[in-house]
Design brief:
The chain has 140 residues and is α+β, with helices and mostly antiparallel strands. It contains three helices and five strands; from the N terminus they run E-E-H-E-E-E-H-H. The strands form two sheets. Strands 1-4-5 form a three-stranded antiparallel beta sheet, with no helix packed on it. A two-stranded antiparallel sheet has the order 2-3.
Length: 140
C-alpha cells in the first residue's frame, strides 16, 4: 500500500476599506489596487474558500519529496477548473465561427469536443447534464 503526502489549501479573504479621492470610479479603483499598505487589513474567516488539493507526493514523508503525482481534476480548485474550461470552450466555440463555416465532416469532428467540454462544465458546476442526448445520424 502506498503512502501519500497531500497538500491542501484554502483561500482566506483579506480585505481593507479605505477612502480614495479620485475623478472617477475607475481612478479610485486604480488607486486602491496600487495602494500597497495593508496595516489595517481584516481577515474574513466566514467566507473562506473551498479546501482543494495543491500537491500530492507518493511514498514520501514530507511534501516535495517522493514521486509527485497529478492531482485528480475533482480535487483541484473549482475556480481554476472553471478558468481552464473557459479557455477550452472559447477555442471550441470559435471554431464554427470561422468565416467559411464548417463542413459536415468538420462539424461531426467538432461536436463531440464541445459536448465533452460542456459536460465537464456541468460537472464543475455540480449539476446534472443540461445537454440533449447524443447526436443522431440525421444531425448535420
Amino acid at each position: 500500500m502506498s503512502r501519500f503526502v497531500i497538500e491542501t489549501t484554502y483561500h482566506l479573504p483579506v480585505y481593507r476599506q479605505r477612502v480614495y479621492q479620485a475623478a472617477s470610479v475607475e481612478d479610485a479603483c486604480q488607486l486602491a489596487i496600487a495602494d500597497e499598505g495593508w496595516e489595517d487589513e481584516d481577515e474574513d474567516v466566514d467566507t473562506s474558500g473551498e479546501t482543494f488539493v495543491t500537491g500530492i507526493w507518493e511514498n514520501a514523508d514530507r511534501a516535495y519529496q517522493g514521486t509527485a503525482r497529478m492531482i485528480p481534476d475533482a480535487f483541484r480548485e473549482t475556480i481554476q477548473r472553471k478558468a481552464d474550461l473557459f479557455d477550452r470552450l472559447v477555442v471550441l466555440l470559435c471554431e464554427p465561427a470561422q468565416p467559411l463555416g464548417l463542413s459536415e465532416v468538420a462539424f461531426r469532428r467538432w461536436l463531440p469536443s464541445v459536448l465533452a467540454a460542456l459536460a465537464e462544465a456541468d460537472a464543475i458546476q455540480g449539476r446534472s447534464s443540461m445537454l440533449p442526448g447524443e447526436p443522431t445520424e440525421d444531425m448535420p
